[in-house]
């Protein structure tokens, strides 16, 4: 392996810089078409990635399989490297030869930190060789979804082979944490693959109950937020609709037990609460308390002969 490729692969930022300034070509690749930036990204070296970007490496260059540095970083869960590349302007909607985006790779492998990387502008003047410790000064990895889960385009992208979106992959591989993040961030919940399967269908097929619960919870939450039971604009390939929580409440809800009655069946609410369901449950319980107090007051008034 050429000296520059070897230095980038092992993460030797100083040697990488020295070789480039001595005349090593950034376009040199290995047998798979991977250049120095691809190797630094794949192996998780943010310092070396920063050096290569600053010295002119192409952030959108592709391997023989069509992988950009960002795609490789996402596939391996290299959040710090993804941060450097996004700050440099890497495209989140870039795809490989099979139509997979960085979000596809991160979802399949449950790399939540990559999906949560925040995209922001680099400081002025730019930091040289920031490294993981200095990375928060560039832009922290935070819980609020940004970058790869920002906007609908990356989350609606389908791969070429089976028409799967990132949420389909998280569902079929049982990646509950990733599925919850994608659903919370606006990923289409009812879109179908080429074989006609929705994310919930895939989770049920593989018996990933936690994934199924997470997706159905967010489907219900969207219905409540929209104030309508009609499909949202993300459901161009609409599938079976999740139960409407308002119907469940009308059918009956016992606040003394962690169960919600929906379509005549009891559904355990504890997984929903773990996914953040308290945000919906607490207002409802408060509403039930007000209704109960009103009913008691009305009963007392009737007892005193007040119509």
Distance between the termini: 92 Å
Number of domains: 3
CATH architecture of the largest domain: Alpha Horseshoe
Radius of gyration from the alpha-carbon trace, in angstroms: 25 Å
Number of strands: 3
Q: Which class of secondary structure composition applies to the elements?
A: mainly alpha
Structural write-up:
Strand 1 and strand 2 (259-262) form a beta hairpin. Mean pLDDT is 76; it is low at 121-146, 229-234 and 236-276. The protein has three domains: 1-150, Ankyrin repeat-containing domain (Serine Threonine Protein Phosphatase 5, Tetratricopeptide repeat); 164-242, Alpha Horseshoe (Serine Threonine Protein Phosphatase 5, Tetratricopeptide repeat), CATH 1.25.40; 250-307, no CATH class. The chain is mostly helical and 307 residues long. Helix 12 packs parallel to helix 14 (209-226). It contains 16 helices and three strands.
């Amino acid at each position: 392996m050429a000296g520059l490729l070897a230095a980038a692969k092992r993460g030797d930022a100083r040697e990488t810089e020295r070789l480039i300034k001595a005349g090593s070509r950034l376009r040199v690749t290995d047998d798979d078409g991977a250049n120095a930036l691809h190797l630094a990204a794949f192996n998780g070296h943010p310092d070396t990635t920063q050096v290569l970007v600053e010295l002119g490496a192409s952030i959108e260059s592709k391997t023989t399989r069509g992988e950009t540095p960002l795609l490789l970083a996402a596939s391996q869960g290299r959040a710090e490297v993804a941060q450097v590349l996004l700050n440099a302007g890497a495209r989140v909607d870039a795809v490989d030869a099979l139509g997979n985006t960085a979000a596809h790779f991160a979802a399949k492998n449950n790399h939540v930190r990559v999906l949560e990387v925040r995209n922001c502008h680099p400081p002025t003047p730019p930091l040289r060789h920031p490294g993981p410790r200095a990375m928060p000064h560039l832009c922290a990895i935070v819980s609020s979804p940004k970058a790869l889960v920002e906007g609908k385009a990356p989350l609606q992208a389908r791969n070429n082979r089976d028409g799967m979106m990132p949420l389909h992959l998280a569902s079929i591989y049982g990646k509950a944490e990733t599925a919850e993040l994608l659903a919370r961030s606006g990923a289409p919940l009812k879109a179908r693959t080429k074989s006609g399967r929705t994310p919930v269908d895939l989770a049920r097929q593989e018996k990933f109950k936690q994934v199924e619960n997470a997706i159905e919870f967010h489907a219900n939450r969207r219905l409540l937020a929209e104030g309508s039971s009609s499909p949202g604009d993300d459901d161009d390939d609409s599938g079976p609709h999740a139960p409407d929580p308002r119907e469940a409440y009308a059918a009956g809800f016992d606040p003394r037990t962690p169960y919600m009655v929906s379509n005549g069946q009891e559904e355990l609410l504890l997984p929903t609460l773990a996914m953040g369901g308290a945000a919906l449950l607490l207002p409802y319980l408060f509403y039930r308390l007000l209704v109960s107090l009103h009913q008691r007051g009305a009963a007392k008034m009737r007892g005193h002969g007040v119509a």
